[in-house]
Model the fold of this input.
Amino acid sequence: MRNFVSDRAREIPPSGIRKFFDLVMTMDDVISLGVGEPDFRTPWNICESGIYSIEQGVTSYTSNRGLQTLRDALSARLASQYQLKYSPDDEMIITTGVSEALDIAVRAIVNPGDEILIAEPSYVSYAPCVTLAGGTPVPVECTEEDHFRLNPDKLLEKITPKTRALIINFPNNPTGAVMKKEDLEPIADILSDKDLLLISDEVYSELTYESSHTAAATVKDLWERTITLNGFSKAYAMTGWRVGFLCAPKDICDAALKIHQYVMLCAPVMGQVGAVEALRSAEDEKTSMVNEYRLRRNMFVAGLNKIGLTCHVPEGAFYAFPSVRGTGLSDVDFAERLLKEQKVAVVPGSVFGRGGDYHLRCAYAVSRKDLSEALTRMETFISGL
Amino acid sequence: MDDKDRELLRILEENSRLSVEEIGSMTNLIPAEIEARIHALEESKIIRKYTTVINWEKAGNAEVSAIIELKVSPERDFGYDRIAERLSRFKEVRTLRLITGTYDLQLMVSGKNMQDVSRFVSEHVAPMDRIRETATHIVMKSYKENGNTLFEQQEAERLPYSF
Done:
């Protein structure tokens, strides 16, 4: 029999942590800092609105673009909070999480052979999405010296005549890095000068601890060449509800909508109803979650530096990205031995691409008690090396 | 009173047993400053007391609680204040509030048993001057106290790794 798996599916690398996953499943009493989602429950008013809508029989498809009430509320919120102006009628699509938004954004703009730059370390799905769309992912390394921000000179080096777009994600998973307005301005100049598109995944926009978030599309004249991706998962602890959104100028939005209507039809309706409620009444709960993340970050990052794992202060998201260079171990070896010997699960940084090696992604979206216990175990592990 | 004070209050309200070192690592404040700020908050009576939320039922020493509502004739010059202050001196009265609606004062009262509570109401509260009417509601079960749910909640399942 022939091998029926497509070349493209074969080209995608397997998950970098499969063996960790299998290992952790055989163990008890593991403290996992490997989880990329909030540890809070979804605020109850959001849950209640979802339950009520099901009771009322709101269980059918919505329009492809998403519920009008959600798009109207979202458009108003983006304008008031980030000065982002997107029409709810033709510049916005509600998607099944940011994952789908990313996929349809990439497929809407990539031609076979196009090079798509990806600021790395990055979320693990960007490169595979580009590959699946027939493009070539090209990493641009963000280094520790730059506090994991995208350096304009490094970006310029990677641009070729085949380059079509750049994908960025700030606040960043896995580094927690943030790009402020002044950091984005030189990037905007390059993108305009080289006539490139920007895909900006801003799903951690609500989770910033030192300053408020700058939406990339508000910087200089980036709006006309930016696809903004965002969602409700991280800010409102709604990962399982699967609600994200894509905003872009009309021609790109129309193209993405065609793909969305064929592959997804619409985002789950109860998720969309929950998202409307999130915008309406969950601000206080969101703020108290952000305050709690800030306290944990301060405590955890101070603790990491104290036990000899140097770590820059992440200004956003809920990840610390310490270096293990001083220990003499690679990030993969460190993570594997730490799990086996002290039962603390972290993700090796190299999984996230260029610039991630010799680092660990530690999610501090766990209780302070567990964070403190994890630090104790990590200290024991390091002192035994 | 500034944002840092309010942050300290939020931390202490959730858990007042944290050490100043622990609070310091969370807030990036030095322990001496935290001590000084907490001291000032205590002096100014913004921090009233450090206490513990206990599930006495589980501890085998359940008390009986009741909500008592009172209709009160207010006093010239004092309104409800004097009578409310007098009532609040009883140790049985755990909470006392002036409220809108049919009744004027609402008390949370607790005692060892039902007889205890009813004796307290009939002997000490009802006969007081200016109290025109009382309504007593015995608490049958408590599900949430001061923001803390008292029933067990199942932990949601989380993947050990996700990106």
Q: What stands out?
A: DSSP finds five helices and six strands in chain B.
